[in-house]
Specification:
Helices cover 24% and strands 24% of the residues. The chain is an alpha+beta fold and 110 residues long. Strand 3 (23-27), helix 1 and strand 4 (55-59) form a beta-alpha-beta unit.
């Protein structure tokens, strides 16, 4: 079941736990590792049959806010997968582990 938050500009969908997505990619325009990190993340999701559409991209330099807050993002790139937080260029195995742990939860949303 998904809840929807109505705003003036758009409808925002949330997960059962109240987050904007199970997979959030925090990035910035001047981040040199953000594009490679996104590619590694997309590959990890694809390994488990999850579409890259599951990723909510948040550009914190432009003031984007997904509704989940950016106060705990201390460096870029930062990837949140469920309750796991990965910073910097992620190790593929660590990322795969985070994806599989999230998928195994009943609340995982694509």
């Amino acid at each position: 079941m998904k809840a929807e938050i109505e705003s003036v500009s758009k409808v925002q969908t949330t997960t059962p736990c109240g987050k904007c997505s199970c997979v959030i990619m925090y990035k910035g325009e001047h981040c040199i590792f953000c594009d490679p990190a996104t590619q590694i993340l997309e590959a990890a999701l694809a390994n488990f049959g999850v579409s890259s559409n599951a990723i909510v991209h948040v550009d914190i330099e432009s003031g984007d806010d997904c509704g989940c807050g950016t106060e705990d993002v201390s460096m870029l790139p930062t990837i949140k997968i469920c309750d796991a937080k990965l910073t910097g260029l992620p190790d593929e195995q660590t990322l795969n582990d985070a994806v599989i742990r999230a998928i195994m939860k009943d609340c995982f949303c694509e």
